[in-house]
Sequence to fold (756 residues):
Amino acid sequence: MKIKDIVNRDIVTLTNCEHEPIHIPGKIQPHGFLIGVTADWKIDFCTDNVADFIAVSYTEALGQNFAAVFGFDAEQKILDYLNTDKIQDAFPLEIELLGKLFQVSIHQSHGIYVLEAEPHFPDKEKLADVYTQTIQFVTQMNQTKSLKDLCALVAEGTRKITGYDRVMIYRFDEQYNGEVFAESRRDDLEPFLGLHYPHTDIPAQARELYIKNQLRIIVDVDYEPVPIFTVDDKENKNLDLSLSILRSTSPIHVEYLKNIGVGATLTISLIHHDKLWGLIACHHYSKKNISPEIRLAAKLQGQFITSQIDIRQSNDEYVSVQKASLALEQLTGLEIPLLQSSLELVVKTPQILDLSNASGVSIVSRDKIYKNGLTPSDEKIIKLIELIGNESTNSVFTTNNISNSFPEIETDSDFAGCIYHSLGNNDHIIWFRPETISEINWGGEPEKSIVKDKNGLHPRNSFNIWKQIVKNQSTKWKRYEINAAIQYAHALHNQLIMIMLSEEEEKYRTQSEILKETNSELENINWISTHDLQEPLRKIQLITSKMLTEPDVVSKESIAASLKRVSKSASRMRGLLEDILKYTRIKNAKEALQLVDLNKVLKSTIKELQEVITQKNAVIEFENLPEIHAIGFLMQQLFMNIIQNSLKYASEERTPVIKITASQEPVIMRHLYKVHCHWVRFSDNGIGFEQKYAESIFKVFTRLHNQEQYAGSGIGLALCKKIMQAVGGDIHAEGKPNQGTDIIIYFPCDPEDTLI
Fold:
C-alpha cells in the first residue's frame, strides 16, 4: 500500500493570494490529531502526529478498518453518537481511545467522516459555572439599550468566560473593512478600540470559511503544522477542512499574528441575515487553549449579539425615525393650494429637510427650480439630473460621494451627497448633504497590508496608527432617511398631478365662462345688427327714397339737410361697426403683460382728445400714476373710452371737470381683494346715474339714455370691462344723479394674480 501526504504546497503570489486554498491545507495544528474514515469505516486519512497521543502510527492506521485499530466498542459509541439528536457541533463526544480519554468533534466532508480528537481537559470548568455566568450575562444584556452597549458587554463577558487578554467586537462595513466596535482588554495593553483595518486583512475566502465554520481557534501561533497522510489510490486526492476545528491556518495569517505580537487566538463569527456582520476576536499574548464547553459559551455570546442586531439598531435609530416620521406626517398633512406657485411654500417648509436630515433641497418642476438650504447652483442641479438620468433608469438614486459618482460635476463643500427622486413629467426632487471631512485611524497603512519581497508575500509588520483624511463625502444616508424621502416624493408626485388637474379644470372652467360670455355677446351683436344697425339704414333709405320720388318738390335747402342726416346716420353706423370690431378683437392677453407707465398713457390720451376737451371747455386734473402690468395699446383704449364717456355725459349746467387720482403704493383692498393691487380713479361732475345701474352699464349695448340725447353705441364701458378682464384687473362704477360718476380700475401687482 502506497501512502502520501496531502500538504498543499502551492506558492501564494500577489495574483492568487485572494484565492489561496485555505480550506485544503493538508495539515492541522498539533494540539490534537485527525482521522478520516470512509462510509464503510475504513481509515483513509490520518495525521502524522497520531502517535503523539495514542500507541499507533499513521502508517499502521491507514487502510485499516476503524474497529481493527480502535476496537468495536469505540466504533459503536461513535455510531451511536452520530445517530443521536445531540448537536454534534456543540457537544463533542467524550470517548476513550486505546486507553486514553479524548473529546472528539465529528463532521462530514464529501463522504468522509472527519474525527478530530483533543485530549480530555482534566481541569475543565464545570458546566454549572458557565451556566451561572451566562445567566448573569443575560440579565445584564437586558439592561442595555444600544447595540454598542451590548457589544461592549459581550466583549467584557467573553473575556471573563474565556480568560483571553483582549476581546474585540469587530464590525465590517459594506466593503468588509473592519472597525473595532467594542473592546475589553488587560489594563496594560494598548487600546485598539475605534481602529479600522482593511478588507485585505481578512480575504474573501477566509470570510467564506467564517460563515461555514463559526468558531476558529489557534492555540499557539508558533506551532509546527502537522501533515495529513492518505492512501495513495487516487490522483489529486484531498480533504476539505472547511468545518475543521484543528485546520492549519494560512502562513500569511500566522505571520500577521506574529507581527502584532499575538500568541493565541479565538475567533467567533457574527452572522446576520446570512452575511458576515463581524467577528468576536480574542487575542492572548502567550499560548492558550480552552475546553469545548468554554468555546461553546463564547460562541453563545456571539449569538446573543446577532440575535439582537436588528432590535438594537432599531433602538439606536428609534428617535431619529420618529422625528422623520413626524416630519413626513406634518409635511403630507399641510393644506397647500393646488397652484404651481405653492411649490415655493412647500420647499421652504422646515419638515422637508427634517424627514431625511438633509441640509438642502431642490424641487425642479416645469423648468423652474425651487430651493431651500445649502444647495448647488441651478446649472449644477440641471447637470446632476442629466447625469443621473444617463446613469440609472431607476426613479431613485442615492450617494454620499457625488464627485465619485459623477466626476464631471465640480463639487464644493455645500453638497457631497444626495437623494434623488424622479417625479415624472420631467419633474424632480433632490435632497443634499454637505461634505463631512472625517479622520479614520487605521491599524497600519491599508495600502501596505500585503508586502512582497525576494522571499515572497508577507503581511505588513507595521501596525502604527495611520491617519486617513476623507474628503468629498457626506455622512451616509440611513435606510429610514431614504425611505422617508421616497415616501414624500410619492406624495409630492400626487400633489403635482392634482395641481395639473386643477389647472386643467380651471382652464376648462375659464373657457366655459368665455364661451358663455361670447354667446351672450353674439346674441347682443345679433340684436344690434338687426336693430341698431337697421335704424340708420332705414333713415338713409327713407331720405334717399323721398329725394328720388319727389325731385321737383324738394328744395335745395331740404336736399342739403337730408344729405346731412344721411351722412350722420352713415357715420353713426360706421362708428358702431368700429366699436363692435374693437370689442370682439379683445382676447385673454395675460401672457403678453408688460410693465406700463400709466402717466405716459394718460398724456397720450389727453393729446389725442385735445380737440374735444377744448370744444367742451373741460378741465383735466391728474396726479402721478403707477406702473402696472398690462398691455400698452389696451390701456390707451381704456383711458380713451373712460374720458370720452365723461366728456359725453358732461352736465350743461357746469364746466366739465375730470379728476384722475391713484394709489401711490400697493394696497390690499380687503373688502374687494386679498392681494396687493394699484387703483386709478376717474371722477367727473357730469350727469351721473343711479347706483342700481352700476353693474349693467358695463354690459354691451346697454344705454341709460336714448339715442337722441346722447349719441353712441353702448359699447364703450363694456369695452373697458373686457380690457380689464384681459389684463387680470377689475373695474367698478359709482354714480350719483346730477352730481357725477366715478370709474375705478384695479390692477394686481403680481401678474400671476387675478382680481376676477
In short: Residues 443-448, 454-458, 701-713 have pLDDT under 50 and may be disordered. The chain is about 40% helix and 25% strand. The longest helix spans residues 479-530.
